[in-house]
Amino acid sequence: MTDDAYLVLLSGPAATLGVPPAAVGELACMETPAVRAWLDAQGVTAASPRLRLLPPEETAAIPEDAERLPVPLGEEELSRVRHHAAPRDVARLEEELLAYRSCADGRDALLARALAAGVPAHRVAELTGEDLAAVKAVAR
């Protein structure tokens, strides 16, 4: 696994990986000379349906022959990418986890539901601000 997110040009069944960059709103990296030059070299625009953005934990799924470019994302940008890349039911739970920060009522039940739905423990900790050990303890 890498620490960088990747812009990738995909086609065929792999085109469902990641998210279109435009779906997550403004990203500082999209305006950098390196990204602009890479897009020009590939003959695509930032709005191309083949262009996808993958968070670091999904980069192992990039096909070997796919054109790719590592891009730096800020913490908030990466959170938006992960949110848009999550399946709808998981995305809904992630929204609840974000709302959790302001209300601890039903804490254990919400954490258990998120873990049971497949939200990784590190992501639950990131979204809630809870200690990772406390999140893992709920799973036991």
Automatic annotation (TrEMBL):
Full protein name: Uncharacterized protein
Pfam families per record: DUF6003
Entry-linked InterPro entries: DUF6003 (IPR046045)
Top-level division of the source organism's lineage: Bacteria
